[in-house]
Amino acid sequence: MKDKKRSRVTLQQVAEHAGVSRATASLIVRGSSKISEKTRKKVLESMRELGYVYDRVAANLRSQRSSTVGLIITDIANPFFSELLIGVHQELEKEGYTVLLGTTFDSDAKQDRLLSTMLEHRVGGVILCPVSDSSKETIDRIKQWDIPIIHAVRELSEVNCDYVGIDYKIGAQMAVGHLIRKGHRRIAFLGGSSESSAWQERKRGYCTALKQAGLDIDESLFIENAVTREGGKASLQQALRHSNPPTAAFCFNDLVAFGVMQGIKDMGLTPGKDMAVVGFDDVQEASISTPSLTTVSSFARLIGQHAADLLHQRIVNINRERQRIILQPELVVRGSS
């Protein structure tokens, strides 16, 4: 005679076995940090003894809200985004969310596919760090979606979404103003794409600093390139072919700056002595590079935390008023300038 099929253990049975309320058991399976470690261990032990398996899909259907959210960034190899990811996880795990991560490598086609995939998985919302040149088709599609989307780092002005980022204009103004005070008059702006809102804001800050110092703006010193070490080296080589080459470089981000410094070293010269270099982001490597990198701190982890909090708020109340959080940057002066 065949054994009868074993019935599925319920969360109510787990709660009764552990001597806690069902609400407490529910918070624990959703990863909430509001429960004491002693109670958590007791409930987890009951789950193991009873063979309980959490049915996430059923839970989502009951609550009419997914506990899974998406995070789409441009480049996981960039330490800035690693820090942002930590901030997002720290904040969302408090509320019991699971985060699906996608990387676009600054490709609009990849971004579009990732957004579609997130929707197919019925995520409750998405934190999106848009690519530099998001297409009109992608923007129009985002406008039509009925799930919360938070923009971080870069902003799509055509879409009415919550946003968190840094004041790139002020940050660039600080960096270029520092170089001017050091006596530099020919300052290159290296890396990034003019299609990006973050690049445009940095350019505004760069130009403001020069104008305040009574210096002319030479647009031939704006050299766009990939926001990578390789892009930094290539940008430096192009800048130094100028008939009147720069004596300093303001770089779109720290990765570009590291490439620029390596390019200077490859020429047998010394960054900070033969050419000043300033980055943007203040990733961990900036303080231990040789020389240590002068840079603008953009508080990546804090951006991630704010973006996660905005997403949770929007999931709880889809109709609340739009929010824009702009953090203030700080200039960190080190050996490269």
TrEMBL record:
Superkingdom of origin: Bacteria
Q: Which SUPFAM superfamilies match?
A: lambda repressor-like DNA-binding domains, Periplasmic binding protein-like I
Q: Upper taxonomic classification of the species?
A: Bacteria, Bacillati, Bacillota, Bacilli, Bacillales
What SMART domains would the database entry show? HTH_LACI
Q: What is this protein called?
A: LacI family transcriptional regulator
UniProt keywords (A-Z) are:
DNA-binding, Transcription, Transcription regulation
- Can you give the residue ranges of the HTH lacI-type domain? 9-63
Q: Name one Pfam family in it.
A: Peripla_BP_1
Alphabetized GO MF terms: DNA-binding transcription factor activity; transcription cis-regulatory region binding
